[in-house]
Give the backbone structure.
Amino acid sequence: MKIATWNVNGIRARASQLVHWIDAEEPDVICLQEIKATPAQIPEMVSTIAGYHTYWHGGGGYSGVALLMREKVFAKPPVFTHPAFDLEHRLVVTEIEGVVYGSLYAPNGGKDYGVKLRFLTAMEAWAGELAAANKRLVLCGDYNVARKPIDVHPTLRKEMIGQSNEERDLIDAFFAHGLVDVGRYVDPDNDRLFTWWAPWRNLRQRNIGWRLDYVAAHHSLVDQSCACKVSRDVGASDHGPVIAHILDP
């Protein structure tokens, strides 16, 4: 199964880029973040995409996520829902045959660190509830936390939001519920594996960034045949798309 995640940083600015990317990659599951639009504001060219069940979950000029499921793989229209702790259009999920697929945009925390910690705490508890119910989770998106020092360029490593021990402990607790960080599983020692670059001083071109975007998949869906890549040269967002090939459920 081919699963893709991309923080588009504004779907109204990236609609044509998204269409070209989908046409080229044809993922089975597409998770988008920071759409920054209500469903009524989604550009017509992407509001419905041929061959996909689409769901847009946004409130306007901030946050927002989307989840697209390929009809070839998921013939029946999915039912899309939101966990109770999703208060800012940050998470959409669907459950299909015991697998819960989700698109996530975690809070940045720069304006309200407490909100971010509460969200991550609730997300960790939710993952535990799913595991206890024998549900297999595949949660992709922008977690807004660099899990380890290796996930930040050496010149950018410091004690700050996005790299704090509190945040990292919560993300580690989340992954401890039987989940695998597919990108790091596939490429464990790469200290230049980044998905976000600040939009100045040519940092993207120089690959001086952070790894914030993850494909988290239940361990039963991951083995040595799996692959994962970051496309640093795709689109004009400050994030690059991440595409993972995991086992079919």
